[in-house]
Specification:
- The structure is a homotetramer.
- Chain A is of the alpha/beta class and about 190 residues long.
- Chain A contains six helices and eight strands, in the order H-E-H-E-H-E-E-H-E-H-E-E-E-H.
- The first copy, chain A, has a seven-stranded parallel β-sheet, sandwiched between helices.
- In chain A, strand 2, helix 3 and strand 3 form a beta-alpha-beta unit.
- In chain A, helix 2 runs parallel beside helix 3, helix 2 packs across helix 6 and helix 4 packs across helix 5.
- The longest helix of chain A is centred in the N-terminal third of the chain and has 17 residues.
- The two termini of chain A are about 15 Å apart.
- Chains A and D meet through helix 3, strand 4 and helix 4 of A and helix 3, strand 4 and helix 4 of D.
Chain lengths: ~190, ~190, ~190, ~190
Amino acid sequence: MRRWRRFPWEFAPVSELAREPRPPYVAVIGDGEPRGPDAHRLLEWAEEIGHALARAGATVVTGGLGGVMRSASRGARGAGGMTIGFLPGADVSEANEFVSIPIATGLGVVRNLVVVTSSDVVVAVGGGYGTLSEIGLALRMGRHVVALSSWRVESDHRIGGPYIHRARDPREAVALALRLAGRLPLTT
Amino acid sequence: MRRWRRFPWEFAPVSELAREPRPPYVAVIGDGEPRGPDAHRLLEWAEEIGHALARAGATVVTGGLGGVMRSASRGARGAGGMTIGFLPGADVSEANEFVSIPIATGLGVVRNLVVVTSSDVVVAVGGGYGTLSEIGLALRMGRHVVALSSWRVESDHRIGGPYIHRARDPREAVALALRLAGRLPLTT
Amino acid sequence: MRRWRRFPWEFAPVSELAREPRPPYVAVIGDGEPRGPDAHRLLEWAEEIGHALARAGATVVTGGLGGVMRSASRGARGAGGMTIGFLPGADVSEANEFVSIPIATGLGVVRNLVVVTSSDVVVAVGGGYGTLSEIGLALRMGRHVVALSSWRVESDHRIGGPYIHRARDPREAVALALRLAGRLPLTT
Amino acid sequence: MRRWRRFPWEFAPVSELAREPRPPYVAVIGDGEPRGPDAHRLLEWAEEIGHALARAGATVVTGGLGGVMRSASRGARGAGGMTIGFLPGADVSEANEFVSIPIATGLGVVRNLVVVTSSDVVVAVGGGYGTLSEIGLALRMGRHVVALSSWRVESDHRIGGPYIHRARDPREAVALALRLAGRLPLTT
């Protein structure tokens, strides 16, 4: 898998900027305050996923707050990566300390749409109803979803377009996400 | 079940208006262009549901366009009911002819949030990814969902709050919806 | 000026519903908590405008809360009219008691876009920055604005499309609004 | 004026990231397709403003499309700066070639709220009704606005909070914006 140079504009003349693709954006979504016996494991998984995505050159996109959002951002920053956090409110100081590009949207619950639409692919780690709505919005906007210990969703009707791909562990989740972000065929 | 007087303000002095509750608002969501072998049946069900809701005094809320939205509105209007349609665009003429209160939101895909949040309970009839996102948003906003031949949704984690209630036929869907809208206990 | 029958669907068979136009929707916008020496006068004007709009058969649209929104709704209901209130939150009980169709949007500040886009014309009575943003959004969405003791807005550049029309009193504001809602020529 | 290090996370251990402030975000708003005799001048001004903001270490935020948005981004990138572009649609390829962080919001016209809310201060260069609505939203969300050959806006009522600051040329616009972004007192 090729690596993206992280900040190409530092080295390229303006005339060449247009030809540089941006790195893949991968959203990591999940509970802002996970509870129950699985909570600790979900946070560890989110951090591992963020770290591996950043190492592969991807930008990690989250909702910018706590829990899974913070762990994924922490993992990515630990690997030198860039993290974007779309906050619901108007105050940028709500962002967790591992968000490098904090975006105060002022959108409230509508900010969830931006998290998934701005990304090439979405990884869901656990999660409650907020995560379910983001999964639905992601599919609605044409983005594939990788689910790790997250929602199972089935319909009586045939649905075309993107899918939910179930991963067994963080490693598989990252491999799937990078493949889907690159729009490579889903074989091997 | 008690019936709501439909337009109480016609008969009541302004000083008494505050005490009249509004009728229950029930959203009916589903595909704007259902296809496949089930399409005809889904549209019939939506019309039957709209009709029964209106007969019980409920206001039927939809996304205002075709398919399930139009059939539910048609059923409600046939029973003398009121129908609200939240359109994605800025042009009110996009509404189907059975919407009595057409609302041009200008919100695009964000209008789905308004459809479910403005309602006391949501009935999903079949549906694709748009419907899945509305189900997720409804639960996220604290609204119960009644599903008829629609999405099955499961999580590995315990989730509190509202639920998806599966109905076997339109009759049961309406009974469940009216009970949930009235916040009556879910027994019997 | 012709009067619209208020609830045509009560009397018409379903097959004829499509041909009935909906009544004009007129938004009345302004401060939710007006202060200063003008506050009382602005509220009186809003009530007078709501009353006159409803008498002419128009539906009054507001943001559903207090101040100018409440006064305009109160005026309209006093004349037997229908009032729609788009609330920012998810709780319908936030609506003032003179809203007949309360819509809990869940949109936060974005609900302002729905107030103006859903209406045929917008009347601004006084108002602060929220009102200024609604005036801008109304013009952006192609709606004319009638301003009574409200914002004066000028550009160095030529702008096509709708305009801000300044009214000297509530009577003139209503006459202008009804003419603009009916898309009649602005003569006389 | 102090300069911000552009990408502090490249050099700092994760434990210190929390203490680094992000650079100031300055939105540059204006017409996506300026016409008339001033068009060329407005585009030159936008480019000059973008360039000077980036030289001072600010991140330039725009709506990501053409006209003033493209010129401001081009100026900023020419100075080695970072540019964020919030697109209305779901397709990142709509961004102009000078956007380094393109965000496909899927929000349609609602994306304007994100442009101004995410920024510390807003610079308006010319502009039509879209720009007027962004100015209103910026003030509504508590952001100061610097106007260069843009809208003049006046109210009959006293309004507290942020203001529109009129600049005579791009140089003054940039100086004002940087001062307001830093929340320094507005003296000289």
